[in-house]
């Protein structure tokens, strides 16, 4: 006679192995290119290259939105704030917003 408990465990083990193979693995951290784009935007602001800074901020936002897994809401909000400030030539507060965006990324790592 077969063991019903053993059959149940065998079925559960088989089912969990199947599900694990189907679930995509989420990246453990934010891509390095996002951090690099934010840092580059800070340098561009320092050098008074407003358009380049805006392009870097937008690229970082795009990469964060395309990232699988939960959105980095706080980081995106900080980047959008920085973008808005740069367009209004408020470079000091924009630098602060970019710094806070980088800090919020560190909490995700």
In a few lines, what is going on in this structure?
The protein is built from five helices and no strands. With 109 residues, it is mostly helical. It has one domain: Up-down Bundle (Four Helix Bundle (Hemerythrin (Met), subunit A)), CATH 1.20.120.
Structural class: mainly alpha
**Could you report the average pLDDT, rounded to the nearest whole number?**
82
**How many domains is the backbone divided into?**
1
Shape: rod-shaped
How does this model look, in words?
Helices cover 77% and strands 0% of the residues. It has 109 residues and is mainly alpha-helical. The protein has one domain (32-108): Four Helix Bundle (Hemerythrin (Met), subunit A) (Up-down Bundle), CATH 1.20.120. The longest helix is centred in the first third of the chain and has 19 residues, at 4-22. The protein starts with a helix and ends with a helix.
Summarize the topology:
Elements: H1 4-22, H2 32-46, H3 50-66, H4 73-87, H5 91-108
Task: List key phrases describing it.
single chain, 109 residues, mainly alpha, Four Helix Bundle (Hemerythrin (Met), subunit A), rod-shaped
